[in-house]
Amino acid sequence: MQVSNSTNRAIAKAAKADADNFAIQNPARILLVEDQPLNQKIATMLLQRLGYAKMDVANNGQEAVSMVAQGGYDIVFMDLQMPVMGGIDATRAIRSNFQLKHQPAIIAMTGHALTGVKEECREVGMNAFLTKPVSLDDFRRVIPPALTVEASQIPMNF
After folding, report:
1. Checking CA distances to 31, which of 59, 66, 101, 123 falls within 20 to 30 Å?
2. Is the Cα dihedral 126, 121, 64, 132 positive or negative?
3. How far apart are CA 118 and CA 114, in angstroms?
4. Domains, the chain, ranges and CATH?
């Protein structure tokens, strides 16, 4: 069976509309914290496919702490192993900043799902845990609950 070009265009348009709809239904200001350019590009492309046209990127935890201190983020996707400051220390610093009017949801993204890592993420106040490589379904799964209540009240989602 062969699919016509017009059918392919219609399918692509519907997929894009569904993606755009996701961001409309789940509006969020997103900070991606990742030191590897390729991982930055992949995560950015996936989030754009969901309709998030713009997000900010920090190259390490220290940059993330400064950017979050300025306020306005709903979700922070946090790599765990980075130079300068890793994701665990950055999350600890963000969660201890009592001057923030709004604590963002912090979602761990790591290629190292070793024993004890998820528990450590929970202990420092992260809200969810994604193992790299991340997928569209991963983002679809963790974004809506991250936006429902104040991040400090969201239980860790495995």
Report:
1. 123
2. negative
3. 8
4. 5-153 (3.40.50.2300)
Per the structure block, which two tokens stand in for 45? 């492309």
E-strand spans in 75-156?
75-79, 105-110, 128-131
Instruction: Give the pair of three-digit tokens for residue 144.
Output: 């809506």
- CA 137, CA 30: separation in Å to the nearest integer? 17
- Between CA 120 and CA 40 the distance in angstroms is 24
pLDDT digits (tens, 9 = 90+) for 16-40: 545 558 999 999 999 999 999 999 9
Could you give the CA distance from residue 142 to residue 130 in angstroms, rounded to a whole number? 9
**Backbone φ and ψ of 155, nearest 5°:** -70, 155
pTM value is: 0.84
